[in-house]
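__Protein archive entry__

___
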Amino acid sequence: MPYIARELDKRFTDLSAGDTLRGLPCDAFFDRLGNHIDEMNAMIALLHQAVDLGVTLFDTAEVYGPFTNEKLAGDGLYPYRNKVNVTTKFSWRFENGKQVPGQLGSRPKNIRRVAERSLRSLRVDAIDMFYQHRVDPACRSRMSRAQSAT
């Protein structure tokens, strides 16, 4: 049987209920996707199986695919949207739908754009956890300058 779930750090468990949150990193899905609908259906079936096995946390990002992974997760997890948590990430710079190698995009305008696209792709009204995939050195230096000015 393929690897499906892993136990997460105790910070991500509901200790009062005694249940362990299980997560599925969805980053490898995009490597298997092409234009073949059968493969997409197999990945959606895998997501459904994961939920049936108790997985409650799914992690994806705009860069996986790019963009196709979030869409796949949104389509596959839509029937379970009130039972699972989906996390996604921002950080990368894209132009004309292609990642700009070596360039990050963590400015507020880009973060907002990514969040809006992710909401549509994941088919949700709110993202359970939206976080920075890679630290953008340009943003770090701006923040350092702002902090030293106060």
